[in-house]
Design brief:
Layout (H helix, E strand, L loop, with lengths): L11 E8 L10 H18 L2 E7 L3 E8 L4 H20 L11 E4 L8 H15 L1 H4 L23 H4 L10
Antiparallel strand pairs: 1-3, 1-4, 2-3
Length: 171
């Protein structure tokens, strides 16, 4: 059965996620995570994406991307291929890093942008940022004090939301 065609159009927003091949880690250490974010920044500049939220987990990632131009497929092809080549070169590996095709769920608000659309967008950003909580890597502020606070998780866009816009990453 052929793959479904990706829906692409100017101004589309997607919740993009992908796991490691065989659910294996896609990051060996913080250097890999930094390289992933650098590569995401490069991809965003190349194709003009707006990255609204991200989280990097051990064996997968989540992104909330807006595409002013209809170029999700072109951008994701460059992004995942480039990161895989860089990861493999650094770790002297070959072959696939990601398991299968990335998932891209279209998150398109209705024309005019209702309050429900804004609420869903906010809920999706919360869902992305709370992945480390669900994985028990961090806690919510009111939870167990032995784990770090969710706002301090370094591989999420949540800490950037607490900073001034001028100090946030450009993607």
């Amino acid at each position: 059965m052929p793959r479904q065609v990706r829906i692409e159009f100017p101004g589309a927003t997607y919740h993009v996620m992908c796991r490691g091949d065989r659910r294996e880690p896609i990051f060996a250490d913080s250097t890999d995570r930094e390289r992933f974010l650098d590569t995401l920044g490069e991809a965003s500049k190349r194709v003009g994406w707006l990255v609204h939220a991200y989280v990097l987990m051990g064996n997968h990632y989540h992104l909330l991307i807006e595409t002013p131009e209809p170029n999700l497929v072109r951008g994701m092809t460059w992004f995942q291929t480039t990161y895989t080549v860089r990861y493999n070169a650094r770790h002297r590996l070959t072959g696939h890093l990601f398991g299968g095709r990335y998932k891209a769920v279209l998150v398109q608000p209705e024309a005019g942008g209702s309050a429900a659309d804004a609420e869903y967008f906010t809920t999706l950003i919360d869902y992305i940022h709370l992945n480390p909580v669900r994985a028990r890597l961090v806690r919510r502020p009111e939870d167990d004090k032995t784990l770090p606070d969710v706002a301090g998780f370094p591989w999420s866009s949540l800490p950037h939301y607490r900073n001034k816009p001028s100090t946030r990453p450009e993607f």
